[in-house]
Specification:
5-stranded antiparallel sheet, 67 strands, mainly beta, Thrombin, subunit H, Methylamine Dehydrogenase, Chain H
């Protein structure tokens, strides 16, 4: 859609204003950027029935391939829904949820999007460009001139075979761009203007919200402006759209209202039932009503032209609806701006009577996971059952909404897929339920069963959020808790807690088993290193003031090496001998390398080798070096955040291989697994992944559907050879059984 706002402010009084014309040279294209690293997949869908205003709606939440923060949305060519996101990326989805995403690595993020009169998609790119993307993903960019500044947003299709957009709410420019990239800009003359959103009205004028002056503005094609002051002062104006009744409808963030205005400036305002709902974007729906997003409260609002408001509450841990549009299927679509990468759909055609909860399994008999070993020469019948052995049957190609996994209610006929490239999607009730896929070849032949589907991690509840984590003596796990305690978890599932310090923070506890049989940890907030015996006795060694030990590793010399402020490395022996060494830049993560040296990354985007005598030497510089440094399989591994890849490096600094990462699950903490694999967790996107040394990634598919599991600190191999990690948001100790992957 085109009316996504950027904020809110204040103002008053009606005043007709002229515009100051700002000349803008025709922006030069930087050339056509072909699509690369295209992400493709069938969206996972979580569906729910939402009752609002005496009606029931099916609301589908579709997880995009990258699961990144999404922003703009619009209906586009080929009957697709097009959207933008932070990666940055532009993506498209069919109404059946087949998705493609086109990463754009030369810009910070893609914000608003609109279909142009040339059937291309026009996108505002942060910090300072407009993009024109063809339906097959080829991108042409038009940089903004210096006079125009930066931060374009709210692009909309005009009646003059051109597009119009806004630039930087603080300067408040309105810009016209032709299909070949020529730009002309108009700057608001009124002091304090802060334009928020724009749309074209049925009268052929551009209408916009001005949060700075608290006015709704109308601009003709020749640049003549008239503005109307909103009755409620300091309303915090945001989105605007043309209504089905001939009026312009707009949103008031501060006042918590929806408003309408006629071409002559007559206003009406309606209170939104939910306090502080934060309405952002609005669109005219195919049902004759207006639909709008309520960001902080996680709701979609509907208002009739007579002012009756109903609100649909979205499912999920942190639903944050942002932009909104109408699709070719005559349903209402919206983006969610949290890190799950969700596109939402309100189905205006179905009105169910029940309120089921859905989860979904996607079966791909091609290259996607999980893969059944299906002979190409045989059709296949398949069935899905949960671990309670309740059978669920599917029908290709559509998702089937079932209200129960009870076989008595799963009455649909069993499906026969006719080739190994066929795909089917089966919905089944029950959140995060483990499931088994079984299959038989029709007419003979052998079929490899997919086994247990990759499961969402299971949890053991902890008394408080856990941060640092290590495998300790007697195959136990040792965890730093936020309240300053150290907890242990044994193979029998027993949790014991020992008070150690005042508190731990996310940065504040790197914990390791020492060569002396004790467990050692950093106390970041109190500038010291702690030791705890297997019996729970705690002692500390002070490091001095303002040291803040961060990351710690056990060196080849049997001493603990740790990074500390402002730019030094510490070495501590188990008998308490402390030595410090200067570092060339502020050090972050430190590890013991396979070459008998220590390795660390630093604030200057460099990786250093550190000898046990304390001498640092820079081995490699990486522009936008990401968090994390690991030693696995006799090599050094690091995350290249600019290129979204995991790099494998020898101890001489030579790159062995670059692994392109699915950017919806990025490595934060990593460890090695069996049979030549690496396992990692992503603290920002709440996912767990396995990567083989051949470059194949497997992502736990249901993890981001869960309630916010919070910060992951480290992943380790623990009891039963499972992979374990902390989940601060739910006070959890999570684990994955690798045999399910």
């Amino acid at each position: 859609m085109t009316n996504s706002p950027v904020g809110a402010a204040n103002g008053r009084i009606v005043l007709a204003l002229s515009l100051f014309f700002l000349a803008a040279c025709g922006a030069q294209s930087v050339g056509v950027i072909p699509p690369r690293d295209v992400l493709q997949g069938q969206a996972r869908i979580v569906s729910s029935v939402v009752n609002a205003g005496g009606k029931s709606y099916i609301v589908d939440q579709l997880y995009t391939p990258s699961e990144n923060n999404l922003q703009g949305i619009t209906a586009g060519p080929e009957r697709h829904i097009w959207f933008t996101g932070d990666a940055p990326l532009v993506g498209k989805s069919s109404v059946k949820s087949d998705m493609l995403e086109f990463p754009i690595r030369t810009y910070g993020n893609a914000t608003s999007i609109a279909e142009g009169p040339d059937q291309n998609l026009w996108v505002t790119l942060y910090p300072s460009a407009i993009g024109r993307m063809s339906p097959d993903g080829h991108l042409t960019t038009f940089p903004l001139s210096r006079k125009l500044g930066s931060s374009p947003f709210s692009i909309t299709n005009g009646p003059d075979k051109a597009l119009w957009f806004l630039v930087d709410a603080s300067t408040s420019d309105i810009v016209r761009i032709t299909l070949d990239g020529q730009m002309k800009a108009y700057r608001m003359k009124a002091a304090g203007s802060k334009l928020q959103a724009a749309t074209y009205g049925n009268d052929g004028n551009l209408w916009f919200t001005d949060a700075g002056t608290n006015k709704i503005g109308r601009m003709s094609g020749s640049g003549v402006v008239r503005e109307f002051t909103v009755p409620t002062s300091n309303a915090g104006l945001s989105g605007i759209c043309q209504g089905p009744d001939g009026k312009l409808w707009f949103l008031e963030q501060n006042a918590n209202k929806v408003g309408s205005v006629t071409a002559s400036g007559s206003f009406k305002e309606y209170d939104i039932p939910t306090p502080a709902s934060g309405p952002i974007a609005i669109v005219a729906g195919p049902d004759g009503a207006l639909w709008f997003t309520e960001d902080p409260v996680g709701k979609i609002g509907r208002i009739t032209t007579s002012g009756q408001i109903a609100e649909l509450t979205l499912k999920g841990a942190y639903p944050r609806p942002y932009d909104i549009a109408v699709g070719s299927d005559k349903n209402v679509w919206f983006t969610e701006s949290e890190s799950y990468g969700i596109i939402g759909r309100v189905d205006l055609h179905e009105v169910p009577d029940s309120d089921p909860t859905y989860s979904e399994i996607s079966l791909s008999l091609g290259n996607a996971h999980p893969q059944l070993g299906v002979p190409k020469s045989f059709p296949l019948s398949f069935a899905v059952h949960d671990l309670k052995h309740h059978v669920i049957k599917g029908q290709y190609p559509n998702a089937i909404h079932l209200t129960s996994s009870d076989p008595k209610q799963a009455s649909l006929s069993e499906t026969v897929l006719k080739s190994s490239t066929s795909k089917a999607t089966v919905a089944f009730s029950g959140h995060y339920t483990d499931a088994v896929i079984s299959a038989n070849a029709v007419g003979g032949g052998s079929v490899q069963t997919a086994g247990v589907l990759p499961t969402a991690p299971r949890e053991k509840k902890l008394p408080d959020p856990g941060y640092g984590l290590t495998a300790g003596p007697n195959d136990t796990l040792w965890i730093c808790l936020a309240d300053g305690s150290i907890a242990t978890y044994s193979q029998t599932g027993t949790v014991k807690v020992y008070k150690a310090t005042s508190s731990f923070t996310e940065e504040g506890c790197s914990i390791l088993e020492g060569p002396d049989g004790n467990v050692w940890f950093t106390d970041y907030s109190n500038d010291r290193i702690g030791k705890i015996t297997p019996q729970g006795q705690v002692t500390f060694i002070g490091l001095g003031s303002d040291v803040s030990p961060y990351s710690m590793a056990l060196g080849p010399d049997g001493a603990f090496w740790f990074t500390e402020s402002p730019s030094q490395i510490g070495r501590l022996t188990t008998d308490g001998q402390l030595t410090t060494f200067k570092a060339p830049s502020t050090p972050y993560d430190i590890i013991a390398g396979p070459d008998g040296n220590l390795w660390y990354n630093a604030a200057n985007d460099s990786i250093y080798k550190l000898t046990t005598s304390g001498k640092s030497s820079r081995v490699r510089s990486v522009y936008r070096l990401g968090a994390g440094l690991w030693a696995e399989y006799q090599h050094i591994w690091f995350y290249d955040a600019l290129n979204i890849q995991l790099d494998e490096m020898t101890t001489t600094g030579a790159i062995v291989r670059k692994y392109s990462i699915p950017n919806y699950c990025l490595p934060f903490a990593l460890t090695s697994g069996s049979q030549g694999s690496l396992w990692y967790v992503d603290s920002a996107n709440y996912c767990v992944a396995r990567m083989t040394l051949s470059g194949k990634f497997t992502i736990v598919p249901t993890y981001s559907q869960r309630s916010n599991p919070g910060f992951f600190t480290k992943i380790v191999v623990g009891p039963n050879k499972d992979f374990w990690f902390t989940e601060t948001g739910i006070n959890g100790l999570g684990w994955i059984d690798p045999t399910t992957m």
